[in-house]
From TrEMBL, chain A:
Family that this chain belongs to: Belongs to the MlaE permease family.
Function: Part of the ABC transporter complex MlaFEDB, which is involved in a phospholipid transport pathway that maintains lipid asymmetry in the outer membrane by retrograde trafficking of phospholipids from the outer membrane to the inner membrane. Probably responsible for the translocation of the substrate across the membrane.
The protein's name in its UniProt record: Intermembrane phospholipid transport system permease protein MlaE
Protein keywords: Cell inner membrane, Cell membrane, Membrane, Transmembrane, Transmembrane helix, Transport
Keyword Membrane belongs to the record: yes
Main location: membrane
Source lineage: Bacteria, Pseudomonadati, Pseudomonadota, Gammaproteobacteria, Oceanospirillales
UniProtKB/TrEMBL annotation, chain B:
Record keyword tRNA processing present: no
Designated name of the protein: ABC transporter ATP-binding protein
Keyword terms: ATP-binding, Nucleotide-binding, Transport
The ABC transporter domain, residue ranges: 8-244
Gene Ontology molecular-function annotations: ATP binding
Tagged with keyword Membrane: no
Domain of life, per lineage: Bacteria
Native source species: Pokkaliibacter plantistimulans
Length: 260, 265
């Protein structure tokens, strides 16, 4: 019994130590006056690797998810003769929930794991240590641009997800299944509120972007520099970010749309 | 003996990894403008010593002073300023894998100076010429052999003409020609520019040929110190065994284990 209590205490302490360390790491990386001459080209490069290279997977997934939503929505709504409402259903589902959550999960798998592995390998091959010895802080040079790139990229990817998803929904329901195009778009316009739905979805995207990238860069920076350490940290990035995204989604949804 | 002009002073320094003492109250003086070698069997924490001097690790007790200042007490900013006057050659080379050879060597120059591009280019090519790799300037680190990568890293370590250069196993993995060049290069840099050199190595011949002063470390202690001649004349058994490379002696070759008879019975 005592062992069990001690074990719980030890793991709780560990969790808080890691949280504290990751908080301090990010503080040292991000809180400083940026030298734009140096930081801007680094940021652009990372925006390409983290953001632009994720566009394909986001577009393809959004298209299929939009098409599935259109199809499922139609088959349910047509029984009640209200298949015109499929436009509003697709748009609300995407903007409020599916676009930020699915994009964040895909982003964690595509970009987050890559960030962890890249930083981890830099650590294992002493690149971070040699950068320190040259007198350049790797937190500012390696971690900061990668974090900001993720933070900026995810909301943009979510916006793309929304647009492509809705287009996918219209492809299936309007062009294939013959829902009236006027009602499809008019219903969507009437029911989707820019502030309540689109902006709230984007707020989720901003939060997820920060959390996923934070987890990814910290796991890379803090890992044990061996091949086993890198593989474990990469797995942890995907698992922790996915859980964090799903958990935070519930909390944010409750705050934004909960009626209490 | 050690001159009065000591640039790195290690006093009663202890460093632990877990329970194990890597260093136990050691005292080391690195004289300015000289070549000092730190030698010892593998796994005795020679690289750790370089990291302690560079401020990447902090000692658990004692003091490490670089140019009169306690390195463990420095703020992050001060530390990075001191490091810009130090060069370090890492054992693996540690080249930045996303930059070309040229950009790797140019990196410290771009970070710490405001020199115009053509001057940076000249300096980089000069440093690469010194290590015989001017022709490899446009290659990426992945295209280099281990020995070549180490020589590029050496060019990068000396790009800023630092006051102190720390070499971690500079001779390992070099072919005989490159090894000769590296030995000469370290010696020349020291003689011509007055760099203080700290060499960590177990290549006895090469190290003894250029070192002014040698420390032999093992088991967390400084076993012996002196000029190469003094050490070669020593009758301390442990040091003798190490220098002459004898398998039998007070330093066990085998990792602690049960006896052979027990193992195979």
């Amino acid at each position: 019994m005592l062992d069990w209590v001690a074990g719980v205490g030890r793991s709780t302490l560990n969790i808080f130590t890691v949280l504290g360390r990751s908080g301090l790491t990010m503080y040292q990386a991000l809180v400083a006056v940026p030298d734009w001459r140096v930081q801007f080209p680094l940021l652009v490069r990372q925006l390409y690797f983290v953001g632009v290279l994720s566009v394909i997977i986001i577009v393809v997934s959004a298209l299929f998810i939009g098409m599935v939503l259109g199809l499922q929505g139609y088959t349910i709504l047509v029984d009640y003769g209200s298949e015109q409402a499929v436009g509003q259903m697709v748009a609300l589902t995407l903007t409020r929930e599916l676009a930020p959550v699915v994009a964040a999960l895909l982003f964690a798998g595509r970009a987050g794991s890559a960030l962890t592995a890249e930083i981890g390998l830099m650590k294992a091959t002493e690149q971070l240590a040699s950068m320190e010895m040259i007198g350049v802080d790797p937190l500012r040079r390696i971690i900061a641009p990668r974090f900001w790139a993720g933070f900026i990229s995810l909301p943009v990817l979510v916006a793309i997800f929304n647009v492509v998803g809705i287009w996918g929904g219209s492809l299936v329901s309007v062009d294939w299944l013959g829902v009236d195009s006027g009602s499809f778009w008019a219903n969507m316009q009437n029911s989707v509120d820019f502030a309540d739905d689109v902006i709230n979805g984007m707020i989720k995207a901003v939060v997820f972007g920060a959390v996923v990238t934070w987890i990814a860069v910290f796991q890379g920076y803090d890992l044990v520099p061996t091949s086993e350490g890198i593989s474990k940290a990469t797995t942890r990035t995907v698992v922790y970010s996915s859980l964090a995204v799903l958990g935070l989604d519930f909390v944010l949804t409750a705050l934004m749309f909960g009626d209490f | 003996m050690v001159s009065d002009n000591v640039i790195v002073r290690v006093r009663d320094m202890s460093f632990y990894r877990g329970e194990r003492a890597i260093y136990d109250e050691v005292n080391i003086d690195i004289p300015q403008g000289k070549i000092t070698a730190i030698m010892g069997p593998s796994g005795t924490g020679k690289t750790t010593l370089l990291r302690l001097i560079g401020g990447q690790l902090r000692p658990d007790a004692g003091v490490i002073e670089v140019a009169g200042k306690n390195i463990a007490r420095m703020s992050r900013k001060e530390l990075f300023a001191v490091r810009s006057r130090m060069g370090m050659l890492f054992q693996s080379g540690a080249l930045f894998s996303d930059l070309s050879v040229f950009e790797n060597v140019a990196f410290p120059l771009r970070v710490h100076t405001q020199l115009p591009e053509d001057m940076i280019s000249d300096l980089v090519l000069l440093k690469l010429q010194a290590v015989g790799l001017r022709g490899a300037a446009e290659l990426m680190p992945a295209e280099l052999s281990g020995g070549m990568a180490r020589r590029v890293a050496l060019a990068r370590a000396i790009a800023l003409d630092p006051d102190i250069v720390m070499y971690d196993e500079p001779f390992a993995g070099q072919d005989p020609i490159a090894m000769g060049v590296v030995v000469q290069l370290i010696s020349k840099l020291n003689k011509a520019l007055g760099h203080t050199a700290i060499i960590v190595s177990h290549d006895i011949q090469e190290t003894f040929s250029i070192a002014d002063y040698v420390y032999v470390v093992a088991d967390g202690q400084v076993l012996a110190r002196g000029t190469p001649e003094e050490l070669q004349a020593t009758d301390q058994m442990q040091v003798k065994q190490f220098i002459q490379g004898l398998p039998d002696g007070p330093v066990p070759f085998h990792y602690p284990a049960m006896s052979v008879a027990e193992q195979f019975s």
